[in-house]
Amino acid sequence: MVNLKGRDLLSIADLNQQEIRTILDLAADLKSGKKQFQTNKTLGLLFYKASTRTRVSFSVAMYQLGGNVIDLNPSRTQVGRGEPLQDTARVLDRYLDILAIRTFAQEDIQTFADYSDIPIINALTDLEHPCQILADLQTIEESFGSLEGITMTYLGDGNNVAHSLLLGGVLMGMNVRIATPEGYEPNKDIIKQAQALAKKSEQVVITHNAKEAVENTQVLYTDVWASMGQEEESATREPIFQPYQINEELLGIADKSAIVLHCLPAYRGKEITEEVMEGNQSRIWDEAENRMHAQKALMACLLGLSD
Question: Binding of carbamoyl phosphate: at which residues (predicted)?
Fold first, then answer.
């Protein structure tokens, strides 16, 4: 076990392999009931974007830890009226024990981290979604018994989920392939960062060929083709992204043992078909459940409950 007490999680790359391993092992123990904690700590949720899984999973996770949750709806707090983030951060630091933020700019959660001493968790920004990837890694490990050497292929938009998959995957010894249409590749700096983190035995591939990308892969992963704030682009994107749909044909090219993941919400018949989503190779519902277990483990570590 490593000591993560008081740390922030703004990027999945804020953690090293041993630290991710500590969180995943604790998540497995919490899920099985092998370990449990009791605390009176308070979690704040400051969400500028809509949320189902992240809001509910964080809330239930903290309640199961014995703590409290305060929903800091921006429309009902002064931050929604333009109070400077650094002022809000300083005040919430005096009230809360830990704060999860879902917002647009990565710089905003960095500001909270700079002006407060409590742990700050990135619950999604336009750049990264590290908590999702912790749950993904837990789900993959449950399916294969290990992460080392597993090949994961992400198909679709090179968005925040793709970024965190790249970084988290290589940190845990996985091969990561990203297949996107031209012009929709992941952030170049994130790609360089992933390549720098990867060992010689690990593979980072960015391609426009979906069929080649899924050959012999053990994990097929997708996300919506238009993220929050891009809804007006949906109709334009659909024909461009159609070749990257996870369907029976693409799944047939992958390894026979392959599993399918989707961070949800899903638009059936677009980025993934009904048949694949409900098929026996789908682990999407396990993945959604693991959001709660992974985040419970993360908070236990950052609050020092697991020491």
Answer: 51-54, 78, 102, 129-132, 263-264, 291
Give me the torsion for CA of 142, 174, 21, 50, rounded to 10°: -80
Above 70 in pLDDT, residue 50? yes
Binding site membership for L-ornithine: which residues?
Answer: 160, 223, 227-228
- CB contact set of 208 (below 8 Å; sequence gap of 6+): 179, 180, 181, 182
1 located within any domain: no
Q: Which residues does the annotation place in the binding site?
A: 51-54, 78, 102, 129-132, 160, 223, 227-228, 263-264, 291
Residues spanned by the domain of 149: 132-287
CATH code at position 173: 3.40.50.1370
Residues serving a catalytic function are 102, 129, 132, 223, 263, 291
Please check the confidence at residue 243 and state whether its pLDDT lies above 80. yes
pLDDT, residue 73, reads 87
What is the mean predicted confidence (pLDDT) over 246-266? 97
Report the distance separating Cα 224 and Cα 210, nearest Å.
16
Is 5 inside a domain boundary?
no
The residue type at 270: K
Distance from C-alpha of 220 to C-alpha of 2, rounded to nearest angstrom: 31
Can you tell me the distance from the alpha carbon of 197 to that of 258, in angstroms, rounded to the nearest whole number? 25
